Amino acid sequence: MKAIDLFTGLDDFIRYADGLLPDTTYEQLAPSIRAVTLDIMDLITAEVYIVLSGVGDEGDSLYEGLEFLKSAVATGTLYKYAIFATVKRNGAENSLYKYQHEEIKQHHIDAYWKAMDRLLSWLDTHAAEVKWRDKDDHEHSFLDTDVYKQRQLLPVKSADEFDYYFGIDKSSFFFSKIQYLIRTVWQMKILPVIRNSKDKTVLDLAKRSLCYQVMAKAVMQFDVTELPRSVRYDFNHEYTKGTSMQTRENLYAQLMADVDGWTRSIENIMAVGAGSASVQSNYNDEKNKHYTIL
After folding, report:
1. What is this structure's pTM?
2. Are residues 162 and 282 located together in one domain of the fold?
3. 47 shares its domain with 168
4. Which of 12, 15, 185, 249 is most buried by a 10 A CB count?
5. pLDDT tens for residues 180-223?
6. What domain count does the chain have?
7. What is the pLDDT of residues 220-244, one digit of tens each?
8. For the CA atoms of 48, 118, 177, 155, what is the dihedral angle to 10 degrees?
């Protein structure tokens, strides 16, 4: 199935996204549709995409999933196509101000993120039906796909759990983008500190430190459009593709300062647990500039 076959044509496409110029043709949108389809396939797998795109009429139990998929593709397409629409408008002497162009981009990216969040959340509740997870009929249990296996190995397994430690608007879309960072930071930075500790306070601090370190890395590595809505809005005037690295480094330093405090708390708790004679002070003392819940 071709990517553009997800919609029957322009009339079907505009049911899921607004903001097209009147003279836009479906053929003009085709390259952007293909590009966003590949992006989405990277997240949900080609198998899931094929299952959903083959859903029939509204009576099908998976029809809602098809609607979410079409919304995600359509809104993502218009986000990618926005620059071409602006050029076309300006060429026709209907020029946009820069702030108008930015508002249009913001509208499309917000719509795209919401659509992707809904699609990914829906997939989690209909996992076996769409091959998001594979069901073993012999053992009547689920055999997880690679996507699921990788996520289940993470110390923070969902957008909701990550949001508990650092606000990401509970975005499943953003969480899918940072799983490799979670895995890397946990293995390289957190495990060497906590070792095999089972202490609940240590594990809670470790997860908090993990999420802040992941966000610090994301701020340095990602474009502003790839950050959660709340973060985009807070730093939208500072963090763009043209932002100097010095500015990004300031935010990175703020996040890592919190991480350093939690790392010291973890080390103190573990030292006490090990019976270290060198640790005798009250770690909740304000002068320590961080607090430990004991």
Report:
1. 0.71
2. yes
3. no
4. 185
5. 999 999 999 999 999 888 899 999 999 999 999 999 999 899 88
6. 2
7. 998 877 888 887 766 544 444 444 5
8. -100
